[in-house]
## 1
Amino acid sequence: MIKCKEAVARLWSYLDRNLDRVEEQELEAHLGLCRHCCGELEFARQIRGLLRRTAGAVEIPPAARAKLDTFLRELEGSHE
C-alpha cells in the first residue's frame, strides 16, 4: 500500500491520466482508505478546473504566486 506522500505526488498525473495501470490501482486503493487524500484529490480537481476556466484571463501577481507555492509545498509536506 502506498503512503500519503506518494499518493499526493501522483494526484495530478492521475487527473491527467498519465499513470500506468499499476500506479493507478495503487492510488485508487489508497484513496479508498484515506479520507485525507480523497480531499486532496478533490482540491486538485477544483484547482485544475479553476485554472482551466481562468487560464490566460487572470495574471497572478508575483507575491500571490509565491504565497500559493508556499502553501502547496506546506500542504504536501504536512502529509509525509
Note: The chain has a mean pLDDT of 90.
## 2
Amino acid sequence: MLVPVATLADTTDQALADYRAQGAGTFDGDAGRRLWNTEQSTADRTTRSCVSCHGADPTRPGRHVRTDETIKPMAPSINPKRLTERREIEKWFLRNCKWTFGRECSAQEKGDILSYLRRQ
C-alpha cells in the first residue's frame, strides 16, 4: 500500500511543530545523524546506539540486538509507512530512547532524529 507523500509530511511537520512548542529550537538533521550513531553506556554495562539495531544506513533493514528480529528500514523513501503515524512515532521514541539512552529523549533530540530520518 502506498502512503501519500502529504501524509508523511503532515505527520512529521506536526510532530516537529509540537516539539518546538515544547521548547526545542531549530532542528538539525546532522545532529540527528550524530545522535543516531552515538554509543551510550547502559545500565547493564553494554553500549548501544540506534545503529545497534537499525544499522548505520536507515535505508537498509536492521536486526534487533536482543531479539534478533529483523527491523524494516527506517527511511521513508524505502519504507513509506515510516513516520506516517504520530502515535507510532511517539511509542517508538519512548521505548527506544529509554532502552538505548536510559532515558526519554528530549523534544530537541526527537526533532533532530526525525529531521535526519525524513531525508533518508
Note: The two ends are 20 Å apart (CA to CA).
## 3
Amino acid sequence: MEIEIFDPEMCCSTGICGPSPDPELIRVGELVETLKNQGHSVQRYMLSRNPQAFSANPKVYQTLLKDGPKALPILVVEGEVRLAGKYPELRDFELPEE
C-alpha cells in the first residue's frame, strides 16, 4: 500500500524532538514504523521542505486551496485523500492491530 502523509509545519521531519515532544507525533511516528514493518510504503512531506510534493498532487493541492492550512495533516492512500485535518489511527488503514 502506498501511503503519503502531508504534515503541517514541524521542527523536523518527525516533529519528535526537543524537551517535550508532542505525544500525538510520537504516536504517529510509531504508526509509520508499524506500517513500514508491515511492508507498506510510507512517505511524509512537510510544506517548507517538500513544497513540490504538495503542488504535484492535485487532490492535496485542491484540499489545501479549499480548506487552507487547517486541512493538514492530509493522509493519502493509493493516490486518494483518505483523511484531512487529523492524523490517522491504525484502524484507518483497515489493517489488524498488533
Note: The radius of gyration is 13 Å.
## 4
Amino acid sequence: MDGSLILFNILNPPVLFFFLGMCAVFCKSDLEIPHPLPKLFSLYLLIAIGFKGGYELSESGLNTQIILTLVAAVIMASIVPIYSYFILRYRLDNYNAAAIAAAYGSISAVTFITASSFLEKLHITYGGHMVAALALMESPAIVVGLILVRLFAPKKEGDGAVSWGKVLQEAFLNGSVFLLVGSLLIGILTGEKGWEKLQPFTQGIFYGALTFFLLDMGLVAAKRIRELGKTGSFLIGFSVISPVVNALVGISVAKVLGFTEGNALLFAVLSASASYIAVPAAMRMTVPEANPSLYVSMALALTFPFNIVIGIPLYLEIIHRLGIGA
C-alpha cells in the first residue's frame, strides 16, 4: 500500500485532533467538551453533508447509475449483518451476535464525512447521491438484526410480541436519519439558489466543526478502549478484519456497477463502517439482553479509528489497483 496516502490522511487536521483527544485521556488531562456542544456539531455535520448531497443530486438528477447505487446500498446494509451474525455466533450468544452484526451492517456518518474530506483534499470528485446511500444504509441493519434475534434466540416464557412499530420508528425516524434525509430533500428542493445562500454556513465552517467533533470523538474512543480488554481477542480481531472484508465486498460491487473512483471509495467506507449511535440506541430498547459495552466499544474504539487512519487510504489503494473509475 502507498504509505504516503496514510501519512496524507493522518496529517489531516481533523484526524490529528481525534488523536489529540485520545492523548488527553491517556495523559489524564482534565480536557472536557461541554456536553451540548458535541451534539450541536453532530447536528451541524448532518445538515451540511445532507444539504450538499441534495444540492448535488438536484444538479445531476436521477439516472440508472444512481438508482443502482441506492439499491446496492440497501442490499449491502441487509447482507452484512446476516453473514456477520453467523461468524459471531461461533463465540457469542444470539443477542450479542445480532446486536454486533447490526452495528457492522449499519454505517458511521462521521467516517463517511472524514472520507469525503479526504477525497476533497485529493481533488477526487464524488456524487451527491452517495449521501442518499448513507441515509438508506443506516436503518436496514437494525431491522435485520431484530429479525435474527426473533428467528434464532431461544424463546423465553412470557416473551411478548415485538413492538415492530417502535422498532421501525427507531430504525427509520431516529434523529440522525430524519435530519440527514430532511437536509437532503431541502437541498434537492432549493437547488442552486439555496446552495448559494447557505454555502458560507454549510461549507465555510465545515472543517472547523468536523475538527471539534473529532476531538470529542477521540476523548470518547479513548475512554472506551479500556473496555475492549473485556471483549477478548476474537472480538478485537473482528473489529479490524470485518471492516476490511466488508470494504472488499463493497469495492467488488462498485467494480461490477461501474462506479467512479470517488463513489467507489465512499461505498467501500459505508460498507466498512459500524454504527455507534443509531444501532446502539435501537438495540438498547429492543434487545436489552445484549451487552452495549461490546458493540459500542468495538465500533467506536477500534473500527472507527482503524477506518479513518488506515482503512480509507487502504480502500483507495485497492480501488486504484483494480482500475475502478479509471
Note: The two ends are 18 Å apart (CA to CA).
